[in-house]
Design brief:
- This protein has 117 residues and is mainly α.
- The chain has one domain: Multidrug-efflux Transporter Regulator, Chain: A, Domain 2.
- It is 68% helix and 6% strand.
- It has helices at residues 10-17, 21-29, 48-62, 67-92, 95-108, 110-116, and strands at residues 8-9, 37-38, 44-46.
- It has a 3-stranded antiparallel β-sheet.
- Strand 2 (37-38) and strand 3 (44-46) form a beta hairpin.
- It starts with 7 loop residues before the first strand and ends with a helix.
Length: 117
């Protein structure tokens, strides 16, 4: 485990939050809250980002939003965050630098990119 991460297995996440493992599995299945990583054996690992997302989901539930409504709000939030990141990247990197980064990403492949994050 990296020192700047807090990786929790699904059982620990359930215990700490008062949710059931079944609920977390369902939310992963429907794409509401997916783990950031999996162990070599396939066990779900939740990091700080997912814990923050879970707080948002639980807050929306407390406001009375349905599962579908929570998913819609989260999807919209994710889109805004992605747009902010794209704007930041375009502001700080030239088109040539972005092309170089794209070529490096393609050369490494998806597995190496996931392993490096």
């Amino acid at each position: 485990m990296k020192m700047d991460r807090m990786d929790l297995r699904v059982g620990e996440m359930a215990r700490r939050t008062g949710l059931t493992v079944r609920t977390l599995h369902h939310w992963d299945h429907v794409g509401l809250l997916s783990p950031s990583q999996r162990t070599a054996a396939g066990h779900r690992l939740y990091g700080l980002s997912e814990i923050g997302r879970l707080q948002t989901i639980l807050s929306l539930r407390a406001l009375g939003l349905s599962l579908d409504e929570r998913g819609n709000v989260i999807t919209e939030e994710d889109l805004l965050i992605t747009m902010e990141k794209m704007a930041m990247i375009e502001k700080h990197f030239s088109p040539e630098q972005l092309e170089t980064l794209k070529k490096r990403q393609e050369a490494l492949g998806p597995e190496a990119m996931r392993a490096s994050s």
